[in-house]
Amino acid sequence: MSDHDDIPLAYVPSKPRDVPSAEQLRERVPGWGADLDPADRPSHPKLQFAPGASGARWDFPERQPGAEGRERSIEHAFVTPVFGTAQPLHGVSGAIRRFAYDRYSEGRLAHWLLLVAGDRVDATGAHLRSFVSGRPDDLLTETGVTAEAKKEARAASRDSTRVDRHHRWLDPLIVAGPWVVTGVVAVRVVAKAVRALR
After folding, report:
1. Is 180 helix (H, G, I), strand (E, B) or coil?
2. Is the Cβ–Cβ distance between 196 and 189 less than 8 Å?
3. Per residue in 142-167, pLDDT tens?
4. 97/115 Cα distance (integer angstroms)
5. What angle (nearest 5°) sits at the alpha carbon of residue 172, between those of residues 170 and 176?
6. Whole-angstrom Cα distance, residue 81 to residue 67?
7. Residue 21 carries which DSSP code?
8. Entry pTM
9. Helices marked H in 43-162 — which ranges?
């Protein structure tokens, strides 16, 4: 038994424990071993187990403090030894993201859809805060729609190799659509509130 039996293999320099033989794998997994010949694998030199070749001067990296409360995928035993702290989770978007990490594996679509939803909630909050700040987001210039009207951009848009040529007509709908829908909903809510007060 190794000193590192309780630590995931990604963080230790030793070989995996209890590796099945090629024969056992071939019996258990149909088609296993199709790429056993190193000549078939361009990455073969990188697959050699060479202790010390990594240059690492540690068996397990020193853990960064502050891992308590950080988001961690449920398939991992603990937060990685080093992690980012630049964007801590906050507010409703943070609660949505934390739920995604606590409840669903990274292999589940729900995990990623919740992270996207958390991002959209965060973006909507930033837009609303921009109105309160007195300097609201400028939808036309910040999205690049006005740049497309310039002469050089018009000439470039006729280029047949331009990747976005076929879906450019969708861009104004994608950029302005959510704002138009939000505006319509806001007007209806205000109108309903006014009618209720009368």
Report:
1. helix
2. no
3. 766 677 667 666 666 666 677 766 77
4. 5
5. 125
6. 8
7. P
8. 0.54
9. 91-103, 109-132, 139-142, 151-157
